[in-house]
Amino acid sequence: MIQTTSRVLVTHLQEHVGKTVSVSGWVNTLRLQSKMQFVVLRDHTGLAQVTHKRGVEGDEVEVALEGLTTESAVRITGRVVANPIVKLGGLEIVPESVEVLNRAETPLPIDDQTRLDQRLDWRFLDVRRRPQAQLLFAVQTTLEQGMREYAYAQGCTEMHTPKLMGTASESGAEVFKLGYFDRSAYLAQSPQFFKQMAIAAGVDKVFEVGPVFRAEPSFTSRHATEFTGVDVELAWISGVEDVMAFEENMLAHAIAKVADIHGEAIRETFGVQVSVPSASFPRITMAEAQEVLRSKGWDPEGVKEDLDPEGERGLAAHIKQQTGHEWVFVTHYPTSIRPFYHMRLADNPSLTLSFDLLWKGVEVTTGAQREHRYDVLLKQAAEKGMNPEPLQDYLNCFRFGCPPHGGLGMGLGRVLMVMLGLDSIREATFLFRGPNRLTP
User: Fold this and answer.
1) Residue 389 sits in the same domain as residue 302
2) What per-residue confidence (pLDDT) applies to 167?
């Protein structure tokens, strides 16, 4: 066995022309001709051509290459040679040794024509084989990094709240119930209550990126039963506008970082131009939004207090036409469709100091100023028909001097889906979970 130096990534081969290197990756394609053997090797940084001339009987390299299959994991040691004929960077590797680390079975269970549901069955292969998926998770990393940078700069403390709860959160709907020793527990459908507890604990600004669970039998392109939420809670606010301003600035910072690092790759791979938003985003009340939409022919069945997907898309198109902006805050949602802990307008208690944020017609965030007064919370919970006893741990936070506060919850997968122009949140998630999918 030839002694080699440490692994060299494909993207760095240009720095090693004329030298012997060791590369590791998967067999992307094979062309085993009568006189020449060509292997395209793939690692997470790109593709490299391996070129070997047949000839010597019993040649170990020839035998090893002949036995390869697509997607086999290999380590190849050889000399990097400049060859302008080679389309992959004008370089090729002339192999001196080939080590088959794990030979892939054949045929592969998926190919480039496989439909999405079957690709999700073999998601590890799907992600490995497609540059789009590899780029998506690089973008996700940068997006999260950018949001964290902004949150830290604003003095946020990153928290990790429990995902197991002793009582069903919020209204008790859309939660997963599971056995917990001799009693029942529930998977948190939001870190909402725990974020507010942190505010009551004296943590002025709270930030969390973590799993969220929704027992919602929705089969749309933007729903999942488990997803990653980006949550923020801010204390001592003057009003809900403080929360919206925080979010638009956080998104502008994070998307600018994505555009700077990945903008060109996103354009080449997804055909999408990453547009960095400018603050402030347009605002429109729910009542105004419905008035605009109805004037344009939007007429959903029955009386709707919310916007359906068609309404969200229509509103986004209107805002884009009027302002040139892809983002819009829809504010002042009716009390009837908001949780009991959303603060209500003093002069119109039928409306809440809440908002949804739409990006290109897709809801990516819900936020609000929270009601921080204990007696008002009790009253609003009663109006929703809620029993305060299971909520007592939460309600106790407001009995001993909880400050005014507000916050937001953002779906990371939805942001990625819209940013990259994907058709479904299934493709914006590593291992998707939905009503009909618990594997792999």
Assistant:
1) yes
2) 85
